[in-house]
Design goal:
Length: about 140
């Protein structure tokens, strides 16, 4: 069980509400992936940051993922990815530095520089790539 994050926080979606979409996972493995993501990546990152981290987007049903124009093979649909940020841009950049330092296990980290958030994923099963990317378009 996660210390700082909840299933609700990773499943809740304003876009899903606006479109009347049920965004509840329908597979036990998705809940297991979300739990693994919270306990093995998000909680440790929160402890290192020593301040709140805000989830912009967590789990996405396939319908929601299509509406938000997510990747066809988005890890959000598997419960393996979140988009996160801190209140202040400098704190999000400090969080990015922690992620890049390699002290945490992750699969993929993407810094979205214009909108000041980080896409972060972790696989419960299989190899995590530790892929670091930058997106300057969003």
């Amino acid at each position: 069980m996660a210390e700082y994050f909840s299933y609700h926080e990773l499943i809740d979606s304003q876009t899903a509400k606006e479109y009347g979409i049920n965004n509840m996972p329908n597979q036990l493995d998705i809940y297991r992936n979300l739990d693994y993501l919270m306990t093995h990546l998000l909680d440790p990152l929160r402890r290192l940051m020593m301040q709140p981290i805000y989830v912009n987007s967590g789990y996405r049903s396939p319908v929601l993922n299509t509406i938000v124009r997510g990747s066809r093979n988005s890890q959000h649909m598997e419960g393996e990815a979140v988009d996160i940020q801190c209140k202040e841009k400098n704190d999000t950049l400090r969080m990015w530095a922690i992620i890049k330092s390699g002290v945490l296990q992750f699969d993929q980290a993407i810094l979205y520089t214009k909108k000041n958030f980080i896409h972060l994923s972790l696989k419960r099963q299989g190899e995590n790539r530790r892929e670091i990317l930058y997106n300057t378009d969003l």
